[in-house]
Amino acid sequence: MFKKVDAVLPDPAVVNPVSDYTITPDPADGFTFTFKNTSKNFTKLEWRFGDDSVAVGDNVTHTFVNTGDPNANPRFAYVVDLKTTSSTGNISHKYINLPISPEAIAQFVGVKDATTPNKINLSVNVKATIKTVEWTFTDADFPDPTVSGGAVKKERLLKPQV
């Protein structure tokens, strides 16, 4: 007597995705980056930028709203994650710490005025979309009884007049 045996099917081929990408900073805006997907063997992908935003698509551009949280990460870095999923449901991640340095966004310049004694011309060179910068000056030459040692003068211009 022979016993009937069901045919054993081979395991399906497993497809493992490989997550990979490149990052290109926007030369005019220190907060904006383009992310280009170079992953292999995937059918679905998802970008997470470390600032609670998510995107899909092979190539995405993302603008961060600040330089990051110095309390969470002393290097002001965002953790960018690309998650890819294969046709068999396997998942791969690639994480990159993306630092956004405040010094790369704004450079403050002070130059002594050649014609006026005790005058410094101040300006800021910014690599971002910034409408105003708040400058705060304390100077004993502007007496203010509410401030010890002088007055506080505030300007909201890119190039203040002091």
Spans of 5+ residues with little confidence (pLDDT < 50)? none
Anisotropy-based shape: rod-shaped
Please report the distance between the alpha carbons of the first and last residues: 106 Å
Number of strands: 11
- Which sheet architecture does the biggest sheet show? 4 strands, antiparallel
Which bin fits the share of residues in helices?
Answer: under 10%
Describe this structure in words.
The structure is a single chain. With 162 residues, the chain is mainly β. Helix content is 2%, strand content 44%. It has one helix at 102-105, and strands at residues 21-26, 29-37, 44-48, 54-55, 59-63, 77-85, 91-99, 106-112, 120-126, 134-139, 151-156. The strands form four sheets. The chain has a four-stranded antiparallel beta sheet with strand order 4-3-6-7, with no helix packed on it. A hairpin with a 5-residue loop joins strand 3 (44-48) and strand 4.
Give a quick rundown of the structure.
The chain has one helix at residues 102-105, and strands at 21-26, 29-37, 44-48, 54-55, 59-63, 77-85, 91-99, 106-112, 120-126, 134-139, 151-156. The chain is an all-beta fold and 162 residues long.
Features:
162 residues, four-stranded antiparallel β-sheet, three-stranded antiparallel β-sheet, 1 helix, mainly beta, 11 strands, single chain
Topology:
Layout: E1 21-26, E2 29-37, E3 44-48, E4 54-55, E5 59-63, E6 77-85, E7 91-99, H1 102-105, E8 106-112, E9 120-126, E10 134-139, E11 151-156
Antiparallel strand pairs: 1-2, 2-5, 3-4, 3-6, 6-7, 8-9, 10-11
